[in-house]
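[User] At your convenience, examine this fold.
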Amino acid sequence: MSGRLLHTLAEMEQAMGAGVRGAPGAVTGVSIDSRTLQPGDAFFAITGENSDGHAHVGKALDAGAAVAVVAREKADAFPPDAPLLLVDDVLGALADLGRAARARSTAGIVAVTGSVGKTTTKEALRMALGADGETHASAASYNNHWGVPLSLARFPREARYGVFEIGMNHPGEITPLVRMVRPQVAIITTVEPVHIAQFSGIAEIADAKAEIFDGLEPGGTAVLNLDNPMFGRLKAAAEARGVARIVTFGATPGADVWLKEAALQSYCSVAVADVMGVPVTFKVGMPGRHIVQNVLAVLATARLLGADLALAALALSRLKPPPGRGVPLRLAVKGGPATLLDESYNANPASMRAALDVLSRTPVGPRGRRIAVLGDMLELGPDGETHHADLAPAIVAAKIDQVFCCGPQMHALWQALPSERRGGYAMHATHLEPMVASALRGGDTLMVKGSNGSRMGPLVKGLAERFRTGEDALLEG
């Protein structure tokens, strides 16, 4: 945190209905993890699925926490002089503090959801709006029932802009979160068959994403992807909720933010767009048409919130991929360097196709090949194997030379691939790593992608350690 006062003790008492014990210090930050806590943070002892934060209160106070927020029923477990705020429900108290931080703010606020691209769009908004004034944004992918309240509780009163990511994997999840955030602008990046096992179909996913309109401030604006097949359904949902204004973005002529041209490079993109009547040429420091598409929504938001559009566009050239979302790494393999594109954070059919397109544009060395290493895409319901097999035409179109697959559902893709493109198959990522390692040669570019549960992240780490260059392996775009 910045070291500035974030919440006074009186504000926290009032917001959370808390009792006080000991002598709490000045609160300059908020934490739910004693391992990353900074001196001056208020530590919230949240009880999760796998751990109880009350077990870590002592460690948090030893690390310099200004106060620990604990359940009243557990207060007697701590020394009488420990600086504590006593509440009925710790997670509920965090949400109450988040609402109080939102209520005192005069910032321009945007909320982002969508099946694909939420975190990258949030980071692009942080960068673009940050060029115009102090901008607070959700850390990492803090977009759920504890991440959104935590992000709000950390909202500085001085911030000019606030950016909040909101996720979901079942109906009814977004509504209570967006009602805490109360944005003036709500973005839906796209609607795709993600977490579809929890829904009857993609239309129901669209309806769940449309819950983001439930918390829009009066006079607020919905920013929607005109190119997405669910646009009509989302627009109708916004209108039914009385949304004052709908702004569209996309490559479809007539979009309010219209992508006129895009030059897609291996590590960046350059594009020309009409942003609500203003011509803008911009460079994005990440590759991929899907990134350019979402940046259109970023530029729309900058305009809607009154930020300097030129500064916002210039800032986007510094955008870099978050961990696991396309970070390029250098590998020292036999015959020379190779490049690994780490897309291991997560996967669904739409993001998989986007990553394959980026791989197709990434250069290879002399005699090098483009290699895709793919793990299962999870939560796709009974049609999961079909979604996997349907990637085969995209792989052929992208001219991927070899494909390595792991996981039971990826076997459907393995069977659908032309024999000359089959690199190797294994049920588990740990068994796939040595196959990929033995196949690599100098000049190759490989992309690794799969859902978190497919364990592709450890595979990336294993390859990076196996082929360590002895220098900073991160490639600069």
Summary: The radius of gyration is 23 Å. The chain has three domains: 9-88, 105-318, 327-466.
